[in-house]
Design goal:
Blueprint (H helix, E strand, L loop, with lengths): L7 H7 L38 H13 L4 E5 L2 H11 L6 E4 L5 H10 L6 E4 L5 H5 L6 E7 L11 H10 L3 E5 L4 H4 L9 E4 L14 E5 L1 H14 L5 H11 L2 H20 L4 E5 L9 H7 L6 E6 L5 H7 L4 E2 L9 E3 L11 H7 L5 E5 L5 H24 L1
Parallel strand pairs: 2-3, 2-4, 4-5, 5-6, 10-11
Antiparallel strand pairs: 1-7, 6-7, 8-9, 9-12, 11-12
Helix pairs in contact: 2-9, 3-8, 12-14
């Protein structure tokens, strides 16, 4: 049976694993060597060439998960993003990027691309027409992110993929928020899939990594730049990441379920102004999300009523952690204006709809009743402070 036909949890557990031929251990052995023989060998291995035994095994697993021919793993999500983009862009080229993007990607483009003579345009929205009107004769890449960070907007993956192919443009997607469990963009016509593997692939808030998956042809181009950029991952971290991915299917599905329950609870709460979650029927892109996602993910965002202080609310939580990253087994919250999108100007954040009181909620695998209890207690504290402030 081919890897593409194997079930999700089977792929997570077994594809790409290395056989311990000497001791018959149940898990992949760890090869820590940074120096390998070059005479009389089939492969000349070197860590920066992404071809140590552990690196190769993990790349096979990620490729299988994304229904891709090939994949590479990197030292961070931004290493994956920057390498993938720069592999297909050079001076005089143009890239179209979705308006709602991860802050790090936005900073890369706005702070660095001009130095290399690369033109860029951000869309006005995330509908297919918004991308079409930005295409120029020198456009080489269309870059999207869906669900987006932090407002969970949904972009029509198939429509963007078809548009890119019509104009002979390479299409790329940041698939981090969905994970391969919930969404496989290559099946919808996207060329290159990118992940911050720090998030759902790692899943335990203890690994920093990135991943890119695509056809052999596209990955060959990315590899040739990647080996020069030097963004490879240590074999110990590779081994840890392979271990973590074994449970990704189980973790993400549990987070999907919890996030749906938490979104519904928050959406019906009198102290919550708005909830952003594609699984809610009230989400403007709910029907589109149903078509291209297998699950709605563990990420949501929400805004408190104007009379409540978002910062105080987060400080009043005890079970749910205030933390800068996301997608771990533990539930976390953060303020995008202070973290992931802090380097964006207030004007750009306003254009994207990112308000100062927005709270991004990464839902973990805890019991939902305990998460609700923690939020209720934090809201009581926050409302109490609001009353005191009003009296003063």
């Amino acid at each position: 049976m081919s890897d593409k036909r194997k079930g999700l949890n089977t792929v997570c557990t077994h594809v790409g694993e290395l056989e311990d031929k000497q001791h018959k251990g149940a898990v992949s052995p760890l090869y820590m060597s940074t120096s390998y023989a070059f005479d009389d060998v089939d492969v000349k291995r070197y860590p920066r060439y992404f071809n140590t035994p552990n690196q190769e095994g993990l790349c096979k697993k990620i490729a299988a998960l994304e229904h891709a021919e090939s994949a590479l793993i990197f030292g961070s999500g931004m290493a994956a993003v920057s390498t993938a983009l720069m592999a297909f862009l050079r001076a005089g080229d143009h890239v179209v990027l979705q308006q709602t993007l991860y802050g790090g990607t936005y900073n890369l483009v706005t702070e660095e691309f001009e130095k290399y003579g690369i033109e860029y345009s951000f869309t006005e929205g995330w509908e297919p027409k918004d991308f079409k009107v930005k295409i120029k004769e020198n456009t080489k890449v269309i870059y999207i992110e869906t669900p987006s960070n932090p407002l969970l907007t949904i972009t029509d993956i198939a429509a963007v993929g078809a548009l890119a192919k019509k104009h002979n443009i390479v299409s790329m997607i940041d698939n981090t928020f969905a994970s391969p469990v919930n969404q496989n963009p290559l099946d919808f016509g996207i060329d290159v899939v990118i992940h911050s593997a720090t998030k759902y692939m790692g899943g335990h808030s203890d690994i920093c990594a990135g991943a890119v998956a695509a056809s052999e042809e596209h990955m060959e181009r990315i590899f040739h730049l990647a080996k020069n950029f030097g963004g490879s991952l240590s074999d110990y971290t590779v081994w840890l990441l392979e271990r973590s991915i074994k449970t990704m299917g189980l973790r993400v599905k549990a987070q999907n379920t919890n996030a749906m329950e938490m979104a519904t609870y928050l959406n019906n709460h009198e102290d919550i102004d708005h909830v952003y979650y594609p699984g809610l029927p009230s989400h403007k892109d709910h029907e589109l999300a149903k078509k291209q996602m297998k699950g709605f993910g563990g990420m949501l965002s929400f805004e408190l009523k104007p009379y409540l202080n978002a910062s105080l609310f987060q400080k009043s939580l005890s079970l749910i952690k205030s933390s800068m990253s996301l997608a771990g087994v533990e539930s976390t919250v953060l303020s995008p204006t202070q973290t992931s999108h802090a380097l964006m100007s207030p004007e750009v954040r306003a254009q994207q709809g990112i308000k100062d009181g927005l709270i991004r909620f990464s839902v973990g695998i805890e019991e939902v009743a305990d998460l609700i209890d923690d939020i209720e207690k934090a809201l009581l504290i926050t409302k109490g402070q609001a009353v005191v402030s009003a009296e003063d």
